[in-house]
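User: I'm putting together a small comparison set for a docking exercise, and I want a reference complex before I start. The sequence is below, and the ligand is zinc ion. Could you produce the 3D structure with the ligand included, as structure tokens?
Assistant: Of course. I'll restate your input first, then give the structure tokens for the complex.
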Amino acid sequence: MKSRKKIIIISSMIAAFVITGIIVIMVTNRTKTKEVFAEKTEDVIPPVITLKGKKEIILKGSEEYKEDGYSAIDNVEGSIVDRVCRTKQIVSEKEYKIIYSVKDKSGNMATAERIIHLEKEGTIYLTFDDGPSESSTPKILDILKKHNIKATFFILNYSDQATENLVKREVAEGHTVGIHGYSHDYKKIYKSEKAYMENLNKLQNKIYQSTGIKSTITRFPGGSSNTISDFNPGIMTKLSKKIQKEGYTYFDWNVDSDDAVGAKNAKEVYNNVTRGLYKKGRNVVLMHDFAGNKKTINALEKIIEYGKKNGYRFETITTDTPAIRHDINN
Ligand SMILES: [Zn+2]
């Protein structure tokens, strides 16, 4: 009897263990099922951006970047290519990246990038001083537009609607409007630091009134190396420091077309510019768009064609452009 009771007790215990085990397994399984279900409702898989064409591109000379296209596929939403944002990230003067990014509706982000290498043979900054003029500036702007080139204009005061419209046009067409000065009269402007700053600020304000742009890019009348200001010894040394303190950046030139004085015709302007270009570097070309300067108008298109054919890039001067400056002689 005793041993039978024992067997019954042991059997009951085993049964209890087995039942408890089954319950535990059942409960665990249910929890697991819940977890799997919870995962399925939340999308944690980011979309995939695939770039068409090469991931690294080399642009030579004045070649422009062309987008080869891309796709963006999300596991839930399918194609979301129209939501891709493209941003340009400048790495150095010779390299930039295009960053492609997109988010799906659950906030999962995908990015891709394309690297663009710039193989510049040299850069040409075309600069035109002493405008605007009704006879020269529109023709120069037309040529620049035809060739899709941006340039820099160091302007003087303009006194009527027609010339004001030219300044507005320069801005609208992507050129830089720099300040040469309200007046170009050496005797007046180089009389004192005060006189020079007034001459500079006066035109800065006027340009701002006309275009909404506060230009801080300047060129000294006669250049920073001029000796025509000798009647006021040391003025250029003082001014070159003063204007930078006041937030301006000044640019001289290293290629002189000589179109204001020496060059007799368009051919000579062309020769002066093309022979003066330094193939591997930055070339700031001095030209003028004052009234009646036909030599430059007639030479400009050929200068641009020469530059493009020989792998130069044409750029506009900005506050980020490393300044080309002369030695100061006064
Ligand atoms: Zn000038």
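DSSP finds eight helices and 15 strands in the chain. Residues 129-130, 180, 184, 221 surround zinc ion (CB under 6 Å).
User: Thanks, that's exactly what I needed.
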